[in-house]
TrEMBL record, chain A:
Keyword field: Membrane, Transmembrane, Transmembrane helix
Stored Pfam families: TctB
Record's protein name: Tripartite tricarboxylate transporter TctB
Source taxonomy: Bacteria, Pseudomonadati, Pseudomonadota, Alphaproteobacteria, Acetobacterales
Transmembrane segments: 38-58, 98-125, 131-151
Keyword Nuclease assigned: no
InterPro entries recorded: DUF1468
From TrEMBL, chain B:
Keywords per UniProt: Membrane, Transmembrane, Transmembrane helix
Name of the protein in question: C4-dicarboxylate ABC transporter permease
InterPro entries the record matches: DUF112_TM
PANTHER family from the UniProt entry: TRICARBOXYLIC TRANSPORT PROTEIN
Pfam families reported for this sequence: TctA
Residue ranges annotated for the DUF112 domain, each copy included: 17-436
Domain of life of the source: Bacteria
Residue ranges of the TM segments: 12-36, 48-71, 105-129, 135-159, 166-183, 203-221, 255-277, 313-335, 355-377, 389-422, 429-449, 469-488
Length: 164, 498
């Protein structure tokens, strides 16, 4: 997901233009110079400006080497794998699982949904089934005890109510 | 005096003491695991704090964050992987010391000077906050507008990235804060007809997304860190007193730098450590020894990152302006618990403030025995594979976000901000600046519009009131500084080329 500065600058400027346009459509408040449209328009203008500057590389000389560069690789660590075409998409797995959780948790119930979430994340991070399976059983139960029993959060029962 | 006693009584309650201890252990474990930051530890604590008494809720945040910042030093010294970003500045130095066969020394410095830094930071908070509260009592919406704006500018100035990208990140945060009807006019903005967006975007799920989910996303595309070899340690604290005497000046300088950076909005422990380490190197008489396992820089920056933690609470308690990302979360908890930030907190709720100071001191004192225990157990804790820890983090993020308002939309917010945080970080946009924008956006706008209504649409009072004028000047300076710095640098480069 590393974008060239030209692309990220263009995205910022586009976002700014949308914000400013969207803001300009908002109705004003009678008797007040500064209505609800002013802040989005100011922010939009700022984003357009910043986007242009990012795209043209102004201020890049200030960029210190990020912590990632400063850390370097630990000695003995394997060299980072060359990113395959779909390698970057793996990163999208956690948010995708969260969306899945939102979509099915009410129907399926907390325990099965949470078990799927934990199992898939663990396997994607390279856990063996020997670890991932017990974790997928134990973690949802433990979370259920703390949040549903102790903190009284109404976690949905769905198809599989908790045994307590 | 009676308020101090009342504060002591508040802290001595069983639930507070249990909360401090449990949060301390939690903070040590989370901080020591690479990739789990102190801010993430705090963000995941929030849903739990809802069910605690106000003092116990604040106590968990204080204890967990203080422990996590120290614990980040442990994998830094042993594996050369900082446990939290706050340790990144001196990880190489600490690891070099371990390679020389003195891991006890490296960890001991981290522990001892963290505790000292934390206590000095607390004393600074105790002295500064009530004094500033006296002045702040006379502030009105004009001053608050400038303060909020100044806070936003500070966050972009101190970011370790291009100021343009930092400002862009802050503007994104401001734009996010525009969503909803929580604006002075009560007009729905950018809600796209969705009821869930009417109330605006809740900061806490957004922070959980930015600091927890994007971290898991990063782990998905990076290799598993090396395992820690089993190791036995000698005495952890031996020789620390000699170091304290030898590097007294550096220690105090680190403390002062830490306190100052903590007070600056948006800049927290990681910034304090980077600045202190470079200050230490710059003014050292033994510059050539830096990077080879030399204690001087460790002393100074180890003290600085913990000192910044307590002083970060100064603007948070006084103005509701977060001093760092941890207090950004803490402010939400303060509001939730009826401890609304503001100068009156120090007059009307003085006993609660005393309780808060006592908890800070207590957390930094128990840091030493718990820290030693954690160092001895580190080989055990650090063997927990990432693939077993991070799935639980994802689950806790989902359940925690839901628990805040029993609303599944919060989980969507977590996912969306996870992606946003991940993409921004990859492209060099500092997420801390965006977080500040989200939290302070409505503060800037509300105070601006309220002031205009008071002054009948006249801008003059923004510059006429004495404190306002000073704040306006500082803000303008902060705004112009990157341009000046750029011009100076360009001139310097031209001079060097000629």
């Amino acid at each position: 997901m590393h974008l060239p500065d030209r692309v990220s600058g263009a995205i910022l400027a586009g976002l700014g233009a949308l914000a400013a346009y969207g803001g300009s459509l908002l109705p004003g408040v009678p008797g007040q110079d500064v209505g609800p449209s002013v802040f989005p328009m100011v922010i939009g203008a700022g984003l357009i400006g910043c986007g242009a500057m990012v795209a043209f590389g102004i201020g890049r000389s200030f960029e210190a080497p990020g912590p990632a560069d400063a850390e370097g690789a630990a000695p003995g660590a394997p060299p980072p794998r060359p990113a395959s075409r779909f390698g970057g998409l793996r990163a999208l797995l956690p948010p995708a699982l969260l969306i899945l959780y939102v979509l099915v948790v009410e129907r399926l119930g907390f325990l099965p949904t949470a078990a799927v979430l934990v199992l898939v994340t663990a396997l994607a991070l390279g856990a063996r089934l020997r670890i991932a399976l017990p974790l997928a059983v134990a973690a949802p139960l433990a979370v259920h005890v703390v949040f549903s029993r102790l903190l009284r959060v109404p976690l949905p029962d769905g198809m599989l109510p908790a045994p307590w | 005096m009676s308020e101090l006693l009342e504060g002591l009584r508040l802290v001595a309650a069983t639930d507070v003491l249990v909360a401090v201890f449990a949060a301390a252990v939690y903070g040590l474990v989370v901080g020591a695991l690479p990739g789990l930051t102190a801010t993430m530890a705090t963000a995941l604590l929030v849903p739990i704090t809802f069910y605690l008494s106000p003092i116990a809720a604040v106590a968990t945040i204080i204890a967990a964050s203080a422990m996590a910042i120290f614990a980040g030093d442990i994998p830094g010294a042993l594996l050369r992987i900082p446990g939290t970003p706050a340790s990144a500045a001196y990880t190489d130095e600490a690891y070099a010391m371990t390679r020389k066969g003195r891991p006890e020394m490296a960890l001991g410095i981290g522990l001892w000077f963290s505790a000292i830094g934390g206590i000095v930071g607390t004393v600074a908070l105790m002295v500064m906050a009530p004094a500033l509260a006296e002045i702040a009592l006379s502030f009105s919406s004009f001053e608050y507008f400038w303060l909020a704006l100044l806070g936003l500018m500070c966050a972009t100035l101190v970011a370790r990235s291009s100021p343009v990208k930092a400002i862009a990140a802050m503007l994104i945060g401001l734009l996010i804060s525009c969503v909803g009807i929580e604006n002075p006019a009560g007009t729905p903005r950018f809600t796209f007809g969705l009821t869930d967006l009417l109330g605006g975007i809740e900061p806490i799920p957004a922070l959980v997304g930015v600091f927890a989910i994007s971290e898991v996303m990063r782990a998905m595309v990076s290799p598993e860190p090396a395992r820690l070899p089993r190791r036995r340690f000698g005495s952890i604290l031996r020789g620390q007193w000699a170091l304290t005497r030898r590097y007294q000046g550096q220690m105090w300088r680190g403390n002062v730098v830490g306190v100052l950076i903590g007070v600056l909005p948006g800049a927290g422990a990681d910034m304090a450590a980077w600045v202190s380490y470079s200050v230490s190197k710059r003014f050292s008489r033994e510059k050539e020894k830096f990077g080879t396992g030399h204690p001087e820089g460790l002393v100074e920056s180890g003290a600085a990152n913990n000192a910044s933690l307590a002083s970060g609470w100064v603007p948070a308690l006084l103005f509701g302006i977060p001093g760092d990302t941890i207090t950004a979360i803490a402010i939400g908890v303060l509001y939730m618990k009826g401890l609304n930030p503001g100068p009156t907190l120090f007059t009307e709720r003085a006993s609660s403030m005393y309780a808060l100071y006592i908890i800070f001191i207590m957390a930094n004192v128990i840091l030493i025995p718990l820290g030693i225990a954690m160092i001895r157990l580190a080989t055990l804790v650090l063997r927990a594979p990432r693939s077993a820890v991070l799935p639980v983090i994802v689950l806790l993020a989902a359940v925690g976000a839901f628990a805040i308002g029993n609303n599944l939309f919060a989980v969507v917010v977590v996912a969306a901000f996870g992606v946003l945080g991940f993409v921004m970080e990859r492209n060099g946009f500092p997420v801390a600046a965006m977080v500040l924008g989200i939290i302070m956006g409505s503060m800037v706008e509300t105070n601006f519009v309220t002031s205009l209504i008071k002054s009948d649409n006249s801008l003059l009072p923004f510059f006429e009131r004495p404190v306002s004028a000073v704040l306006a000047t500082i803000t303008a300076g902060a705004l112009l500084w990157p341009v000046v710095a750029w011009a100076l640098r360009a001139r310097g480069r031209a001079g060097a080329a000629a």
